[in-house]
Each structure stands twice: as C-alpha cells, then as structure tokens.
UniProtKB/TrEMBL annotation:
<keyword id="KW-0067">ATP-binding</keyword>
<keyword id="KW-0547">Nucleotide-binding</keyword>
<dbReference type="Pfam" id="PF02661">
    <property type="entry name" value="Fic"/>
</dbReference>
<dbReference type="InterPro" id="IPR040198">
    <property type="entry name" value="Fido_containing"/>
</dbReference>
<feature type="site" description="Important for autoinhibition of adenylyltransferase activity">
    <location>
        <position position="42"/>
    </location>
</feature>
<protein>
    <submittedName>
        <fullName>Fic family protein</fullName>
    </submittedName>
</protein>
<dbReference type="InterPro" id="IPR003812">
    <property type="entry name" value="Fido"/>
</dbReference>
<dbReference type="InterPro" id="IPR036597">
    <property type="entry name" value="Fido-like_dom_sf"/>
</dbReference>
<dbReference type="GO" id="GO:0005524">
    <property type="term" value="F:ATP binding"/>
</dbReference>
<feature type="domain" description="Fido">
    <location>
        <begin position="91"/>
        <end position="228"/>
    </location>
</feature>
<feature type="active site">
    <location>
        <position position="170"/>
    </location>
</feature>
<feature type="binding site">
    <location>
        <begin position="174"/>
        <end position="181"/>
    </location>
    <ligand>
        <name>ATP</name>
    </ligand>
</feature>
<feature type="binding site">
    <location>
        <begin position="206"/>
        <end position="207"/>
    </location>
    <ligand>
        <name>ATP</name>
    </ligand>
</feature>
Length: 242
C-alpha cells in the first residue's frame, strides 16, 4: 500500500542534506499553503496571496481581525510543531493543548488550550463526539494508543489515524480541525516526511472520508486521501533535488 511512498522517501533521504536554500524555499512555500488551506477549510476568506502578505506583517483591508489572527496563530503553531520535531519529543496531551492554545490565542482565550465543558456537534457530519465527561479518558487513550500499538503502523497510516481519532473525540470547543491537521503533520515530520497540505478544494472529499471513518470504522478512504497528499509533497521535494 505504501511501496511508492517508501521508494520516494528513500530516494529523498539519499539526497540529504538538501541545500539550505532549497530547504528554506520549500519550507516557506509549504508554510504559506498549509496555513492558507487549513484556515480556508474552516471558512477563513483570505486568499493564498492575502495569507502570504499577512504573514509578512501587512493588514488586508476588508478582512476581520479574527481572520488575520488565524493566519498569525497558525504560523506560530507550525513553529511549535517544528520545535517538537527538532527535540524528538513523544506526543503528549500538554503538546496538544499548547497547539490549540496557539491556534485560539487572542480569538477565544477562555477556551484556548482547554478541553470543552459542553457538548458539540460537527456541522454536516453524522458522527456525534463524546460528552465532556469522557474527554479526559478518551484523550489519555489516544496518547496511550499512539505511544503503543500505533508505532507498529506505517508512519503515514499512523498519522492519518491520529487525525481521525482526534477529530472523532473533538476535545475542544473550536479549532479541532486546524489542531488535527497540525498533529497529522507533526507525526509525519517526526519520521522524516515533509508536511502535507490538505487542500481546501478537496474539503468535501476530506469531510466525507472523515465521517465515513467515524460512523463505519472504515478508514481506507481517509488513509488514501492522506497517502495521495504525501505522494504529492514528496514529488515536490524530489523535483527540487533532481
């Protein structure tokens, strides 16, 4: 299932270390696209170019303060992901709460980094997340799973499953989608994969695959979606190294 990906990654690894300019250029490209698409999936109306200029410190007229903060906050959360990867730290609830705190900083400081204390429903989905009373138990189970049997999975499958399980728990009032995609890439980057971008234009297929996983236990569509994005990012990196 992952033969093509493994071959591409092995070839990319054989070309490391990549030139500093190439690494910088690819990182900047993916940071902007990751931020734009992850926010756009959640309804942010800033375009890709507008996202880029906000990251450069320029205010875009006609856009809300929240939309600007979502861009800056997402960049800060990516920097935190890179810091965790560099330190080689195992996944913890503390990290997840910190990622969420960065995502909602200045937007909803009351709930930033705090598990929800009320029931939520996922718009357009059949799956209903667990009640607040079960959240701590579910998150502890997620961390135990990730540090245990999940380590036997292929890194791409494990990252996809981490995303699915986390979104199914939906531990926060808001910001679960952005946090889940950060966790997905955190897990990929820990094993040497470049971060992927789930594109806003694929939002419907993405949501349908997630809901299918949550309601039927069939994760194949979602894993396939993530696998395709990993292939595309690897192709991007390979095109840069020749």
């Amino acid at each position: 299932m992952f033969n093509e990906i493994d071959k591409k990654k092995k070839y990319l690894d054989s070309k490391r270390p990549l030139s500093p300019y190439t690494v910088k250029s690819l990182r900047e490209k993916l940071l902007v696209e990751w931020t734009y698409n992850s926010n756009a999936i959640e309804g942010n109306t800033l375009t890709l170019k507008e996202t880029k200029v906000v990251l450069e410190g320029i205010t875009v007229g006609g856009k809300t303060m929240r939309e600007h903060l979502e861009v800056i906050n997402h960049r800060d959360a990516i920097l935190y992901v890179e810091e965790i990867v560099e330190k080689g730290e195992p996944l913890t609830e503390w990290q997840i709460k910190n990622l969420h705190r960065l995502i909602l900083k200045g937007i909803d400081d009351v709930y930033a980094g705090q598990y929800r204390d009320q029931q939520v429903f996922i718009s357009g989905a059949l799956h209903v997340p667990p009640i607040p009373l079960l959240l701590q138990e579910k998150m502890e189970e997620l961390i135990t799973w990730h540090g245990g049997i999940a380590q036997e999975l292929h890194p791409v499958e494990r990252a996809a499953m981490l995303h699915v399980i986390f979104v199914g728990i939906h531990p926060f009032i808001d910001g679960n989608g952005r946090t889940s995609r950060l966790l997905l890439n955190l897990d990929l980057m820990k094993t040497g994969f470049p971060p992927i971008v789930i594109k806003a234009e694929n939002r419907l297929a993405y949501y349908n695959a997630l809901d299918k996983a949550h309601t039927t236990g069939d994760h194949i569509d979602f894993i396939e979606l993530i696998k395709n994005e990993v292939n595309q990012t690897l192709d991007l990196y390979l095109s840069a190294v020749g």
